[in-house]
Amino acid sequence: MNSLERLEGLSTSLLAHSREATVSSHAAEVIDAYESLDPKDRAAYFGFLRDEMTVDHDALRSAATSYLESPDEAGAVALGTASEPVRREFLRLLNTAPWGTRSIVNMRADLLELLPKNPGLRVVDAAFLHVLRSWFNQGFLELRRLDWSTPAAILEKLIAYEAVHAIVGWDDLRRRLESDRRLYAYMHTALPDEPLIFVEVALVDRIVGSIEDVLTQPPAVDLAEPTTAIFYSITNTQPGLSGISFGNFLIKQVMGELQREIPTLDTFSTLSPIPGFLVWLRGQSDEDLEWMDPGARARLPALNGTEWIDFPWAQQDLEPVLMQAAAHYLYTVKRPGSNPPRPLDPVARFHLRNGASIHRLNWMGDPSPKGLGESAGMLVNYLYDADAVIAHVEAFVGDGTIAASDQIKALAAGRTVSATDVASR
Amino acid sequence: MNSLERLEGLSTSLLAHSREATVSSHAAEVIDAYESLDPKDRAAYFGFLRDEMTVDHDALRSAATSYLESPDEAGAVALGTASEPVRREFLRLLNTAPWGTRSIVNMRADLLELLPKNPGLRVVDAAFLHVLRSWFNQGFLELRRLDWSTPAAILEKLIAYEAVHAIVGWDDLRRRLESDRRLYAYMHTALPDEPLIFVEVALVDRIVGSIEDVLTQPPAVDLAEPTTAIFYSITNTQPGLSGISFGNFLIKQVMGELQREIPTLDTFSTLSPIPGFLVWLRGQSDEDLEWMDPGARARLPALNGTEWIDFPWAQQDLEPVLMQAAAHYLYTVKRPGSNPPRPLDPVARFHLRNGASIHRLNWMGDPSPKGLGESAGMLVNYLYDADAVIAHVEAFVGDGTIAASDQIKALAAGRTVSATDVASR
Amino acid sequence: MNSLERLEGLSTSLLAHSREATVSSHAAEVIDAYESLDPKDRAAYFGFLRDEMTVDHDALRSAATSYLESPDEAGAVALGTASEPVRREFLRLLNTAPWGTRSIVNMRADLLELLPKNPGLRVVDAAFLHVLRSWFNQGFLELRRLDWSTPAAILEKLIAYEAVHAIVGWDDLRRRLESDRRLYAYMHTALPDEPLIFVEVALVDRIVGSIEDVLTQPPAVDLAEPTTAIFYSITNTQPGLSGISFGNFLIKQVMGELQREIPTLDTFSTLSPIPGFLVWLRGQSDEDLEWMDPGARARLPALNGTEWIDFPWAQQDLEPVLMQAAAHYLYTVKRPGSNPPRPLDPVARFHLRNGASIHRLNWMGDPSPKGLGESAGMLVNYLYDADAVIAHVEAFVGDGTIAASDQIKALAAGRTVSATDVASR
Amino acid sequence: MNSLERLEGLSTSLLAHSREATVSSHAAEVIDAYESLDPKDRAAYFGFLRDEMTVDHDALRSAATSYLESPDEAGAVALGTASEPVRREFLRLLNTAPWGTRSIVNMRADLLELLPKNPGLRVVDAAFLHVLRSWFNQGFLELRRLDWSTPAAILEKLIAYEAVHAIVGWDDLRRRLESDRRLYAYMHTALPDEPLIFVEVALVDRIVGSIEDVLTQPPAVDLAEPTTAIFYSITNTQPGLSGISFGNFLIKQVMGELQREIPTLDTFSTLSPIPGFLVWLRGQSDEDLEWMDPGARARLPALNGTEWIDFPWAQQDLEPVLMQAAAHYLYTVKRPGSNPPRPLDPVARFHLRNGASIHRLNWMGDPSPKGLGESAGMLVNYLYDADAVIAHVEAFVGDGTIAASDQIKALAAGRTVSATDVASR
Fold first, then answer.
1. E strand or H helix at D289, and its extent?
2. Catalytic: which of B11, B103, B269, B272?
3. What is the nearest CA distance from C148 to chain B, expressed in angstroms?
4. Smallest CA–CA separation between C257 and chain B, in Å?
5. In what order do the strands lie in the sheet with C181-187?
6. What's the pLDDT tens digit per position in D77-98?
7. Chain B partners of A25 at a C-beta cutoff of 8 Å?
8. Are the beta carbons of A152 and D149 separated by less than 8 Å?
9. In the prediction, which pLDDT does B342 show?
10. Fewest C-beta in 10 Å: which of C285, D78, D202, D342?
11. pTM above the 0.80 mark?
């Protein structure tokens, strides 16, 4: 019996002995067997879950027929019950193993990697998503502030996971946990060492446009009364929980916490990347760019090569055109087929959906290789104005209207805006 | 607008604003409104959940039709999704309120009280049960030993909840937490002050047949090496979690804990009530009792009245007949319509289903008014023999075979067994 | 070898092996041996500590001689070192046992009981007091609020220890922990289950004069903004820590905590017993009472017997004379030989020394047998006025000036004050 | 008023208001004032404590005179009381400040630095040592295992403090906390973030002689049953607690913990530096070294310069002579004036005093610059044999007898021992 067959046998057996006291150690055996499975056999195992742990089609057919004859609420409930595939119960049993939830989350991460090439496994993912969405209900998440008194075993996860502005070692991490910084995470009791999502905040006295100002400045011991909270990084850590949205509530709950703790705060803004900008721009034909100021457009070819990165004068030359293009990209360019129309940029979609407005583009906000490669070094501030959030959400959800500052609108329309205008608030 | 209408309005509105940061306080408003609702309006509110928070019948019909045309796994998943009633999502949103889970459990307790008179609300209960079963998955329960260092706020719940042998005040409770006793509970992070189910155990040196020996004896400081763990009470505390089984795992997990802590333990037994015995016996006609030893049967009429309770000689007279009848009730009498046949007595069903055997009937094991009223004062030991549990479960689940000691079988067959025989092991 | 000799041998041996790794278990042996010693042998054991664990008199004589020749600071230090008796080091070694501190506190409680009949043991107590005062330095005490979430093992100590108004069971205790009550204790890490001293506070809307109003009223759920904190009981729990003062800081630290938590509080008062009043009064001759209003004095004989307790008219008759006498007792009567003069009443001494003023006498404030027996049922409020505390302390410490309200002064001077005047603020 | 005068004024005032509720904030003011004092004024401030916070010399003279007249125990107690300088009470008051203990420990560290040039301040240090020794009684220390789940704020202290084998960053630290390593510390509640002393242990399968084997080997996942615990580093972290011995108990308590946790352990050894060896050796004249094998001695001059460090053949040449010299240094060379004789090497003194034996010299055990500079790269194992510890202590304490292995004795006697002989056990 090879290891895949053994795993399948154990899985079947777990279901058969679901009420026994041994279910927890039985589930642990299944998980061990899965974890020692050769990765190339995973698709086969998920196929087994699809093909063998199915719904009872006879019962479901019968329930569907009954319902169609008499389509009432009780019939719908019966249909719902009949449509439960065995694999869902299987996952509930797996969860009884020590660290079961963690293993299920990791299994789903494996499964998601296989989906593009194995679309037939989507029905298996549906079962994973169903149970995980229930278990990771917002009501079971704990918002926790992480700081220097947090166990190292949790803090090292932040270093490993940070996806926006990499944390380069413990000194960098410590800087982000000083008294003028905050780091909040959602935690779940089933994964006690794992921040599920975390957000990093700088407490400052103005809307900051440069990530270096956030990351490298020494702690502001003199900043007695910060006015502004900058959300400069937000990271989802668990690929296996993809599709379960945490970020929306996290930002707003953190805003509430900060407001309570520091009454002098009156401005909440992000400092965000524009991840798809250059990819998009390089895909634009000349005609696509006709909306642009012709003088600006003429400079675009300089973007090819790396000269513009290395020479300040080349950067200066490109600044107006790229600022226009980026504003246009964020404010005007839509995701194909979205209705109501939605921005192409995923970060913009996220914050606008949450009720923020596009506030300010920042030239050379992130001159790191990653920043230059994604967005020619630009960063953008999204502003969360508590009084306007609901109106923004309604407009955006309704017909796709995007809230933006005058500068953004002017740039997006191909007008030239001086750096000073942009920088000022 | 009356308070029912207000609650319904808030409920509808919660769904409409499900992605907003205010969802948690919005959910709290719904819960407050529910809790201040006149109890007589509750049925109407649950009716609202049934009638207004339904499935999308158009979509479900369409999914059912598609499935019947092409009954594959993907169609079943689509059907499952389409069969989700809105009220399930509504409960998930409610759960975001502080203490949301607790409130939902309490709401379901209210709902279950209404069901007998409002069977149409079963479809609503199906939604409650669906989400609660998922959230209270065995994997999320924490087995905790409760003792005198436990917060008073939790301990007082034990006094309030104990259903088998009432805890009469803090001194009685303290006795049950001494060094020769154990009390284990399942806890859940969403109800941090609530033991969901708890079991009380006495560590002794023999299988005890009298509850007074358990409850009133002073702590056995000299019992260095107990051999026997008596599970003398097991209590489910949350009516709102009815239908979600905890007891099975609790007993077996506690057996494991005790075995690890106290290696000298080699016997695990319950000391259990026979709650339905006298009700059943009084419903028996003469013909029903023909199986019984005629001499014994002749004494039965003495059971009417209370003389037998007050006079030892009357008790002595009744003992043989009642012991036979109780053994017969436990071992032979079945629940009508059960297939394979199942005992009529619910406690017997529970322990036999878990793999125990009926070990010994104890005359005057519980001479309290409750004990006398339920079972003429008899208690029964169910024995958990780790080596036999699986075989017992398989036999019981298979064809209904009940494991029982020779004494029980003899009594159940209408034979007379001397008290000494019964008492000895 | 009898058990006293064994204990003495172990004690000597502990000193001889003080640097060995076994010191902790060795110390535990000494403590066990002490705890199983016949109580009648305790005096002999403390005598052993006095006679055998002495200072090195040769060295001390030599140090004393040196110092007298050249009385400088270094000589004083040397003298201090030479004057250290071995028994102090012995106690430091005892402290290495598990729960050593607790045992030393208990040993000192035993010792204090023996002192009156064994004044020669005072030198032993000096060693206990020296180490305990150092270990229980105010800086090592933790102020903790105890409430219903506190472990039962700590709460039961409150029931056992409460010395002023007995807590009659868990329901009474719970009432004192409701949301309109507070209970604060000092805790020390070496005695984790023992509140060293605790104070009970009622949050109300006026200065309360009746203990029944405090203890039996249902929780004031409507009292959104209490104005007044009544300290109605303060209890030292550890006789073995007698002579180490905790109460002074406790009251003031609790005032600070309450002020922070509940900004509406503007009045802090006690509701205190007058424990020595009737004993004092019964010892007064006619001449002693000449200061009193003659009409009042004439009624005093009625105080003999118990008629005045049982009949309201008799009480009414005595009220003016007892109120005068009590005010006089508190305000005017001094402890013999105190200089500057100090009140005879120990509770008055305590609060006046802390900066309070005598605010109001309350007739029938405590009609319990204890209250009637101590002070004819009267209670007194001491008022802590944050703005006046320092001035009060300085005046009291300086020349013994007592701060008191006009009513107290009038009564103490033998004038009649109507009940209404007294009751009003 | 300059800052020194201000500090002195605050200090005097703290004593004058010692019973007031403000004592804690008053003490905090003194500490703040001390901490912002110019370091060059510290000696003056400690001089103030010496000159102004003195004993009452009149009272002490009188107590000394009385005692000399009648030298009994009560007189000794009175003398002890009279010899208490005010500065001791002052320190007790300082301790009431938040983090007071920590500040007092730090003040003493400052004071100890000043002592060599200001021997007159020793009387001030006596007061510090008196209170700290009492507060840091062994009974108040908590042995805690530190690992990767420990807060980063504590772990970073380990990196900062490690004095024997520097921890170079978090990765190095993490290696020392893996499953085959242990790190134990003594903690005190008054300094919750500060390990007072910590010891690092490697769990291995033989007595290890090379620090690189300890520090750089990957975790031994296969080492199911380690036989040997190597204590390879022990660090006192608080200069302000100098003179209060923790190490003795720490090693033995950790041995007990490890023995309980891992029953397969049967050997406990250190891997220790020989810090004073080369300094001593370079101070030896030719006559001093006459005990040595002449052939070996002839090679010694090669030790000047650095050639021997860089060339293996030069090391090889020196090995025999240095091994002999080191064994001689550890085993034979005594601290001048010690009686009974004690080794000159402080690490040897420490472990021999604790009952260890000198077990094995390890050539090139620590080839780091520090190791080469101190001891020509040699390390030594001290062996803790539980059965022999008490006998070793008694012999060492008695007449200075040193327990050592045959190899050590042979080397110390100037005999040549082959490397193989030394390496084997």
1. none
2. B272
3. 5
4. 23
5. C142-145, C181-187, C197-204, C228-236, C267-270, C379-384, C357-362
6. 999 999 999 999 999 999 999 9
7. none
8. yes
9. 93
10. C285
11. yes
